[in-house]
Amino acid sequence: MTQLVIGQLLNGVIVGSLYGILALGVTLTFGLTGVVNFALGAFMMLGAYGTWYFYDVIGFPYPLAVLAAVIVVSILGLVSDLALFRYTRGNLVNGLLVSIGLIFIFEAMVLTAFTTTPKDLSYVLPGAVKFAGITLPKIRVAVCAVFVVVIVGTYLALTRTWLGRAAFAYSQNSEAAALMGVRTGRLQTLVVVYSTALAGLGGGLYASMYSIEPTIGAFYILKAVEAAILAGVGSVIGALGGGIILGISENIGSVFFPAAFRDVYGLVFLIAILLVRPGGLFGDRS
To answer: Which of 45, 165, 173, 260 is most buried as measured by Cβ atoms within 10 A of its Cβ?
Structure first.
């Protein structure tokens, strides 16, 4: 029983890091543009399919396939921002409508190109590692490590560089940041593109663990929003923490209670936290 709980705990950390990378995109986009971009789940799906295409069809090495997919998704993010999202900044409802529309468009594009047949890349890094009697697939451990490095790197970039400080200043007071010389339009576009790149990276690495299909994004963007709210929207490291806590609560809950309700356990934990800390675990206490 102890090994089962520890195993589910580690699996929760791995799955939670995937929630965390998307939650980071959600919190950055919302903090800088005022829009909750639900299309990030669709960008994740595009990253997964792009990685599969570059690896399985074109024949790129897996790391290069992920990089190529992230670049393609980033370009789509840039086009989406310039054509659509920049007209919805600060307007939650319009941003939501645009992101929902993009979800339908991207899913239809993938369905047309690749049909509903699931794709699988789970063979890119075979084998397993053993830790304290627990066996974990190598690819999941590697993916979790990449996610943690990316999130910590983003945190350092936001706190140690001029661009990061400009983003923080803009999120606190946009008019004052503009008066101090921050080119706010470009800053917002950069954040949107970076968020879509994070989603593309998440999708590319997701493809190495699970089979992919056009609708995977809808599930994970809901988990990401849940993780961002749990952590407190605006907290970069909190996004990782929120994702991991959510992943652990789902996996541990399914050990002691019916696994069919595993998605409910994280939600119950979220509600319990918000009753005590309305601003989230790492957010404002108010």
So the answer is: 45
